């Protein structure tokens, strides 16, 4: 099982930012159909759910299902398979600007690192309820790594 970067550590965030800097608006995916700008917007949704009041909380039944069936796949150590279906809230339907989305993602990564591990210990997830800081890191880091690998960086 892979070990994902700890995004609460400045050096790990710097390494992620370097990987993001290697992307260009013309970078193509090794699998899937998202453009690089769409992928960046898609990855940003996880941070929007933490920091922005943009996305509704799923209803109680959906939260139960997500917590019992989906949570471990999202926060656990196993990598995501290629072309895994995504939740509707993560589907980007409009055209996005590559530079804007990359800047947003870098800002979110720096904010997570600045806020630190203690700010995330026991923090409520809209979908999964309270998560440990390690689970939050798994959610953020594994998702980011999956999509950066998708785009070859």
TrEMBL record:
InterPro entries named in the record: DinB/YfiT-like, DUF1569
Source organism, top-level taxon: Bacteria
Annotated Gene3D superfamilies: dinb family like domain (1.20.120.450)
Protein name, UniProt field: DinB-like domain-containing protein
Organism encoding this protein: Gemmatimonas phototrophica
């Amino acid at each position: 099982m892979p070990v994902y970067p700890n995004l609460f550590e400045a050096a790990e965030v710097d390494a992620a930012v370097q990987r993001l800097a290697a992307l260009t608006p013309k970078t193509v995916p090794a699998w899937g159909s998202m453009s690089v700008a769409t992928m960046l917007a898609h990855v940003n949704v996880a941070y929007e759910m933490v920091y922005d009041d943009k996305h509704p909380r799923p209803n109680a039944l959906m939260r139960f299902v997500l917590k019992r069936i989906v949570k471990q796949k999202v926060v656990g150590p196993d990598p995501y398979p290629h072309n895994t279906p995504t939740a509707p809230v993560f589907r980007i339907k409009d055209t996005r600007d590559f530079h804007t989305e990359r800047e947003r993602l870098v800002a979110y990564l720096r904010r997570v690192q600045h806020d630190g591990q203690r700010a995330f210990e026991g923090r409520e997830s809209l979908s999964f309820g309270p998560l440990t800081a390690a689970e939050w890191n798994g959610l953020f880091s594994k998702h980011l790594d999956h999509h950066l690998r998708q785009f070859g960086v």
